[in-house]
Amino acid sequence: MDEIFDVVNDRDEVVDRKPRSEVHARGLPHRAVHVLVFNGRGDVFLQKRSLSKDRQPGLWDSSCSGHVDAGETYEVAALRELREELGLDVGLDKGKTPEKLFKLNACPETDAEFVEVYRLNAEGPFRLHPHEIETGGWFAPEVVGRWMARRPEEFAAAFVLIWRRLRI
Prior knowledge:
Layout: E1 4-8, E2 14-19, H1 20-26, E3 30-38, E4 44-49, E5 60-61, E6 64-67, H2 74-86, E7 99-104, E8 113-121, E9 133-139, H3 141-150, H4 157-166
Parallel strand pairs: 3-8
Antiparallel strand pairs: 1-2, 3-4, 3-6, 4-5, 4-9, 7-8
C-alpha cells in the first residue's frame, strides 16, 4: 500500500495529499526528518542505507531518517523513525526526546523534502530494521568530516548538507 504524504508549498504549508509514488515521480515538495544519534563519547551513529531502498541505496546517512506521513508532525515522525529504524522507544513519556537542531528547505539534494534535523543522545544497542538499513556504526565526527571530504559520493546527498551545516 502506497504511503500518503502531505504536499507542501515553498513555505512548508500543506496544500494537498498524494501517494508517495506520485510525490516522488513528480518531484513534489514534501516533508522528512533526520535524527543524529550521539553517544557519551561524542561519536555519531551512521546507517548505511539498504540496497533495496528506492532512493540513494547503499549510501551512508543520518542515524535514522524518513518521511513525515500525511497529518503527522515533524516531531512525531522523528520519534516514529527512531522506533522503526533503530528500535529506540523515546518520547516525553520516556523522559528522553530528540532536540530540534535546524530545518533545511526543500531542494534537489533533499529530493524536494523540507527536512527537520534532530539530535538525540543514546548509547544503543540498536535493533536495525533490515529492510531500511544494511549496517551501521559509531564514528568520531572528525572521521566523518575527513571521509566526506575525500569521498562525498558515499553519503546520501541530504546528509552531506546536514553534516556541513552542523559544523562539528
